[in-house]
Amino acid sequence: MKKALSGTIMNTLILLVFALTLLFCSSPSNAQTVLLGNVVDTSGKPVVNANVLLLRSADSVLVLGKLTNESGAFRFENVSMGNYLISCTYSG
User: Which among 13, 28, 77, 90 is placed 20 to 30 Å from 53, CA to CA?
Assistant: First the structure.
């Protein structure tokens, strides 16, 4: 049972990374960006309190971190324009 649950969680986390819906809204005056997304499980249900990290792509240094809300949404504000990675984890 524990092994099956672990595999299910791993599959869900992999799917979560691909299921992230990202929306960039740029402000040309100060080159800051808002990054929005939703984390859902394999059945499309929101994942509450998933840990979402925004990392610099060059060196994977943590830029910002958030927990998803009750609808699985997260929002990073005032992000400088650049290349980033998003990491999402969930324990439960």
Answer: 28
